[in-house]
Amino acid sequence: MSTNNQERESLNKAEFVNFIHKNNTNMTKADIERALNLILRGVEKAIENGHDINIVGFGSFCVRFRAARDGHNPKTGAKIIIPESYQVVFKPGKTLKDACNN
Questions:
Q1: Which family does the entry's similarity section mention (predicted)?
Q2: For the segment 84-94, what is each residue's pLDDT rounded down to a tens digit?
Q3: CATH number of 52-102
Q4: Residues 53-73: what's their mean pLDDT?
């Protein structure tokens, strides 16, 4: 596997479903897409309800607070204040990190 990000291919959702289907012919593409949608909605709802998600080996999804901070408009260079916000953060687990480095 290449470590150069410019050489890595990005998969959209449909391509990801096809990729999974090629490696798992026991499920139809429709079943894979339904399962993927269910997982994604589950992550969204859990985060929305104040839960962090820890999947051993894969990684963790959690919410982090970002305080308001100074920034600048990249087009005009004008100073702006970026408002405080909450952001979802993903931290990869050991198995996922190892897969990336093989």
A1: Belongs to the bacterial histone-like protein family.
A2: 999 999 999 99
A3: 4.10.520.10
A4: 95
pLDDT band at 5 (very low <50, low <70, confident <90, very high): low
Closest to 95 (Cα-Cα) out of 39, 55, 63, 61: 55
Report the first-to-last Cα separation within the chain, whole angstroms: 7
Q: How far is 16 from 35, CA to CA, in rounded Å?
A: 12
Residue whose pair of structure tokens reads 């992550």 in the numeric block: 43
**Strand intervals (E) in the chain:** 53-55, 59-66, 69-72, 79-82, 85-92
- Residue 17 neighbours by CB distance under 10 Å: 21
Domain boundaries, the chain: 10-51, 52-102
pLDDT band of 2, cuts 50, 70, 90: very low
